[in-house]
Every structure is written in C-alpha cells, then in structure tokens.
Design goal:
The structure is a homodimer.
Chain A lengths: L5 H28 L2 H8 L3 H7 L3 H24 L5 H17 L11 H9 L1 H23 L9 H11 L3 H9 L4 H14 L4 H6 L14
Helix pairs in contact in A: 1-2, 1-4, 4-5, 4-6, 4-7, 5-7, 5-10, 7-8, 9-10
The structure holds a DNA duplex (18 and 18 nucleotides).
Chain lengths: ~220, ~220
Amino acid sequence: MARVSFREQVLQAREEAIVSSVNRLLAQKGYDGMTVDEVAADVGIAKAVLYKHFPSKEALAAAAMVRVLDRAQARLAELAVSGMSAFERLQAVARWTLEVQLAGEMPSLPAQNSALRAALAADAGYMGKLLAVSEQLGEWITEAQARGDIDTAIPPEVVLYTLFARACDPVLGVLKASGAYTDERIVALLLATCFGGLQSRATATAARHPGRATRAAPAR
Amino acid sequence: MARVSFREQVLQAREEAIVSSVNRLLAQKGYDGMTVDEVAADVGIAKAVLYKHFPSKEALAAAAMVRVLDRAQARLAELAVSGMSAFERLQAVARWTLEVQLAGEMPSLPAQNSALRAALAADAGYMGKLLAVSEQLGEWITEAQARGDIDTAIPPEVVLYTLFARACDPVLGVLKASGAYTDERIVALLLATCFGGLQSRATATAARHPGRATRAAPAR
DNA sequence: GTCTATATAGCGATAGAC
DNA sequence: GTCTATCGCTATATAGAC
C-alpha cells in the first residue's frame, strides 16, 4: 500500500532539510568551499548520520541540483499555461533564475571538476531532470525563433546554453556586492544585456544596411 | 647599474616558465583543482625551489593574473592606435579574450574564495593592472555610448563587468566540447550574443513602439 | 539509531642532506 | 642552490561506543 510510516516521514523531512542546507551552502561558498562537516553542523546532525542518507559529497551536490531542477520544472509548468508567448516565457524563466540567484539559493558547482561531473553524469535522476528541462526550453526557443522574436542566426542549443549560463552569471554577484543597485534593477539590467545585448538599438538597426561595420560580428 | 647578472637572467627565465605553467594549469583545472606539486612537476623543478620564487599558491595565481592583465594591456595599446571606433575596439577586446580562452590560456579562479580574493586584493601589482585596464575600457565604453553605439541605459560599469564575465564565460567551453562548431564560429556566436543579445533585431525595433511588450525588460 | 573518535589520504609548506 | 623527505593540517569517510 501507499502507507508511509511515521518513521519514513521523519527521515524524508530530514533529507529535505539536508538538501536545503546543501543548496544554500553551495550557493554561498561553492562546491570546493563547502565541507561535509559544515553541512552536518548546519543541519544539526552528526556527520555519520549524513552519510547514512547520502553516500558522498558528490551525491549531496547532485541532490541539490535535482531539487533546483525540480523547482525549475514547476516554474516551467506554470509558464506553460500562462498565455504568454514563447519569447516572454523564456524571459520569465531567465528572470526566475536571476531571482533564485539573488535569494542566495542557486547552487554553484565548479565548471571543471572531472570527478564531480562524472558523478553528475552518472546520476540518472539529475540527467533526466536536466534533459526534461532542456527539452521544454528547446521547444520554446524554436517557437520564439519561428515567430521572429529570437535571432534565427543563433543555433537553439547556443541560446539554451546562454540561458543556463545566465543562471549563474557572476555579474549578478558583483552588482549585488557593489550595493549600487536594487535587486529589481539588477534583474532588469541583466535581462536587458542577455536578451538585448550591449549594443544600442539604433546602431544595430543602422548596421543592418550594408556599408557600415558597427554591428557585432555576425553569426555566420 | 642596470647590469643584470647572468644568474638573475636565469632566475627570471625560470620565473616566466613557472608563471606560464601556472597559467595553463589554472585554465585547465581551475584554482582548487591545481596542486603545487603539479606545477613543480610541470616546470621540471622541485617544489622547494618553487617556494623560493613564490611564497604561496595564492601568489602563484596572482602572478598568472598579472601576466594575463599585462597581455590585455598590450592588446589595448595596439587597439588604441588602430583607428577603430571605440565600439569596434571593445568588440576587438572581447574577441581577444575569447581567443585566449579558446587557446586554453585564460586562468580561471573561483568566484568565491575569501582567502584567495583577499590575497589578490592585497597584491598591489594585480590591483594596479586591473585598475589600469578597467580605466582604459571605461573610457572606450563611455565614448561608445556617447556615439550611440552602446545602449546608454546600461551603466558603464555594468558594461565593463559584462565584458569581464564574457572573458571566462563557460558557454565557450561547452560549445568547444560539443565539437559541433569551429573556433571561428564559436567566437562569432559569442560576440553576437554578447553585443547583439538573443533577441532578433526585428522584434527589438518593433518593441520600441508602445503597445507591445516583447522587448526584454527595460533597464530602468 | 545516533554520536564520538578515528582512519586515511591529499595538499600546502618546510627542514635538512648533499 | 637544489632536491628528498617529511611535517602539519584539513577534509572525506568510517568504525565502534551507548
């Protein structure tokens, strides 16, 4: 039957608490900076207990990534029935990732760490979620391109990677640390640079006509 | 006198070899992934000798960063007398950083590592170079904005940070690893997304007229 | 089942031999 | 002056007490 014992509920609640701590610590200090002792102390349990739930530090990171992908999927599901255009949905997703980052809840993993990346690639749950999210976004990207809202000269997967990269763009942290901008303004600025680029619209339009060379190098 | 002994020349040459190795290893494995033993082995000297030249691993990283900033400064000096517009010079700088990254010669430091960041902030050579490069770029940015080539709604320092961030954009590594693009095309694509944004020009122009909401959120 | 205490290993940094 | 050998510390992971 589907009956879940009280004991199992307690265990699951603690697991959630662990993943939540890992998520925040990964956002604050990154993977290499986070220690397992710290996680145990933050959750309020002994390290040995932590290892009863998760077999390794890599598994902890994977669990945190799965949770953030779960949340992303939930946000995608909301947007799917929102009546927004594909382009607006993509912007809304980008905005959401920036807000998660501002809230200090976006786990950051090192770009290059062969052991960790191998562990993540071997995690079926992580890879499945990542694929599902990527496919949904890919659909919206091609739709936005078909409607003429996203530059068709950019391959869809490059658009996808660009959006993923913006979800952990260090510029947000720098702007936040400078203290010169409100959170709202930071989000607006980063969305503008991501979707609109640095170039002014006037220049971009003028560059469409041959004879001038001020436009950014075309994506051949 | 300015006479430099043969011995000192040898020491300086070795120092250059050390920094060169550190630079490449930082680009390959990142700061946390790089070990001092590895550096010594790569240079072909004993670790103790390494510590005669540089007092710590952090100092090694700082030296590598100073060297890359030196090279950036040299490139800026070339561009300053090139006859290009400010906007074109900024694009040329961005292109150069992408090419350095493609060549596997862009050292990558962790975004969050208090000890390392403190050491870098305390390094006068590093901070001086960083300031000099930033100021030169800042001049070009404001000039490009005055000429209407860069969006004036974006504060100059945000443009600066965006360019710095593109110099270590992980998207380049992903595209390179996919093997689906030539180096030239990768550079073209990343320059296009950075300066031109994801949005198509047609949509961007249409959005200038009120009544539609397809443009990226304006930078208020 | 939970915690204390420890095993094990890797890395930054150094002392001492030649 | 250069290298071998090692120290000391930290962090992941585990065994055994209660």
